[in-house]
Amino acid sequence: MAFMALSLLMPAAWAQTTVTKEAKKQAKVFKKEGWTVNDGEKDMEQQFADLQRYTNDTLYIVESATQKAKTYHLGYTSAHAKALRGIASRLSTLVASETNVIQTNVQGENGEAESQQAMKSRIKSISQETLSDAFPVLVLSRELPDGTCEVQVHLAIAIPEKQKENQPSASVSK
Hints:
- With 174 residues, the chain is an alpha+beta fold.
- Helix content is 48%, strand content 20%.
- The strands form two sheets. It has a three-stranded antiparallel sheet, sandwiched between helices.
- The chain is globular.
C-alpha cells in the first residue's frame, strides 16, 4: 500500500519505461561495439527505452554528444558540456521563435521598445536558468585500443512552456 502511494507521488520522469524490441536491438549492437554502462546505473536496454521515450515526447528536448578522452570522467564532463550547449542552442531557437523575434525592436510588456540585444540577453538568461534541469537519459562508455575512453551522453530537458501548458490550471473558488 505504501509503495502504491509513493509511486503516485513520483514524477513521470522517474517512472520505469517498458523496454521495447528496438531498445533491445540497439543495446545488443552497442554491446557488440564494446559500449558499457557504469555499475549501479540502469541497464543498457532500459536506458535505450528511456531515450526512445524522451525523444518521442514533444515535451522534451534531447541532445547527445560523444567525447574521447584520457579518462571516463574527463570524457563524461566534456560530452555533458557539449550536450548542454546543444540544448542551450535549441532552447534559444525555441524561445526566439515563440517570441517572434523578427524585427529589430519588439514591444515590451511596459510599452517600451525592447532592442534585439536586450531580447537576446533575455533568451540567454532563460536558457541558462533552464539548463540546470537537464538530466542524463543514456550514458555509455567504452575503452578504445589506444587506452583512451569514449563516452556518449544523451541529456533530456523538459520544455518549460510546454510543461506549463499541459498542467491543469488550478482554479480557486471563493
